[in-house]
Specification:
Blueprint (H helix, E strand, L loop, with lengths): L3 H7 L20 E3 L11 E2 L1 H4 L3 E7 L13 E5 L3 E6 L2 E6 L5 E5 L14 E5 L4 E5 L3 E5 L5 E6 L3 E7 L2 E8 L4 E7 L5 E5 L7 E2 L3 E2 L5 E3 L2 E6 L2 E6 L2 E9 L9 H10 L5 E9 L2 E8 L2 E8 L5 E5 L3 E4 L5 E4 L3 E3 L2 E6 L1 H6 L12 E6 L6
Parallel strand pairs: 1-21
Antiparallel strand pairs: 2-25, 3-30, 4-5, 5-6, 6-7, 8-9, 9-10, 10-11, 12-13, 13-14, 14-15, 16-17, 18-19, 19-20, 20-21, 22-23, 23-24, 24-25, 26-27, 28-29, 29-30
């Protein structure tokens, strides 16, 4: 990747020093030392302990038809007892949750009042069977068959997730150029927001850092400096500390990049983490490559590392690399591509069939 890689990803690094959650000076949080494990980052590594944690793999072949070709950039939006909901190429597809049969899709691209020309984020409301699609300025809801339902003002939200606490979003308070993580009510109004102790980092006066979050098991997770926060009783609370040592991104983003590269120094350019049981799933960019790691929170040990995705059992004989698109109700879901299946002789490289949906039990993720 070209040198501009560093500048583009630098825009998304979390350099915020603290959050208005419940962190205290004497909080006894688990600590993971990333910097001490850099030796493992040179090669793929998987411990025997990790291999025993993901159980009962189940696969569903998503039907392949001209109306539902997913391509290589599809991701799972949701899996319910009724639907497998997949997003890809500005469309939302619905497949039968048991058979993988294609059912319907939302494809309302355009400039009309009931259409969208881009998808900034989407969310499936299982209870009401509605998909909310965020455009640049609006949030629009649709039925699974593509029927337009309603339009809502979007404000400046850049992400949205739903937990039992309510809706969580990230929005920009424009007059301060700050990004806040907010808890919203069902009408998309902010109930309370969580602001770091200082303003988002500025570079050259107008480049600022936006927080982001990941979702798993009815929780959101967001990185603020070295601390991972999660929602608890309508608040953000610290979950664990990740010490990056010399791998930590410097505060002086633009001025430091050329020097760091020329000196051959390593640093994490962008990272995200979440917890499942006693495991931390942590992925980051280092030396122009993406890394996927799994850590034992209690011992601080690295259990698995790969540059291709997380190790997941496909069956008793085969382990594949895949990205968790969804973790819900202690089950992890991933789409297994033709390329990955071909590595194991399970599909021809020229096969243009839709991916497999792989589901593994994660309720045993306690060491």
């Amino acid at each position: 990747m070209k040198h501009s890689y560093f500048y583009s990803f630098a825009c998304f690094i979390l350099l915020l020093t603290a959050c208005s959650g419940e962190k205290t000076a004497d909080a006894k949080l688990p600590i993971i030392n990333i910097d001490e494990s850099t030796g493992y980052f040179e090669n793929d590594y998987t411990s025997e302990a990790y291999k025993t944690l993901l159980k009962n793999p189940k696969i569903v072949q998503l039907e392949t038809k001209d109306d539902c070709l997913l391509g290589g950039f599809a991701s799972i939006c949701d899996v319910t007892p009724k639907y497998i909901v997949v997003g890809g190429d500005k469309k939302i597809y619905f497949f039968d949750a048991h058979s993988g049969t294609f059912l319907s899709k939302i494809d309302r691209q355009g400039d009309g009042p009931e259409e969208y020309n881009d998808i900034y984020f989407s969310y499936f409301d299982e209870e009401n069977e509605l998909v909310y699609i965020a455009t640049l300025k609006k949030i629009k809801s649709y039925k699974p068959d593509g029927t337009f339902v309603k339009e809502y003002p979007k404000g400046s939200f850049t992400n949205l997730a739903h937990t039992t606490d309510g809706y969580w979003g990230i929005y920009e308070r424009e007059y301060w150029k700050q990004h806040l993580i907010a808890l919203l009510d069902k009408d998309w109004k902010v109930k309370q927001s969580f602001l770091p102790d200082r303003e988002a980092a500025f570079v050259n006066g107008d480049l600022y850092i936006a927080p982001r979050f990941r979702e798993a098991n009815n929780h959101i997770y967001t990185m603020v400096d070295d601390t991972l926060y999660t929602n608890k009783e309508e608040k953000l609370s610290p979950a664990l500390v990740i010490h990056k040592g010399r791998l930590k991104m410097p505060n002086e983003i633009i001025s430091a990049l050329d020097r760091l590269v020329s000196e051959g120094q390593k640093y994490i350019q962008m990272d995200a983490a979440l917890n499942v049981g006693n495991l931390m799933f942590y992925n980051f960019f280092l030396e122009r490559g993406r890394h996927y790691t799994v850590w034992d929170i209690k011992s601080g040990k690295l259990l698995a590392h790969s540059k291709s995705g997380y190790f997941m059992p496909l069956n008793e004989e085969t382990t594949v690399n895949a990205q968790f698109s969804l973790i819900k109700n202690d089950k992890g879901y991933a789409l297994i591509s033709t390329n990955e299946l071909a590595k194991h002789g399970l599909r021809d490289e020229e096969d243009d069939s839709n991916p497999l949906l792989l589901c593994v039990d994660m309720d045993n993720c306690t060491l």
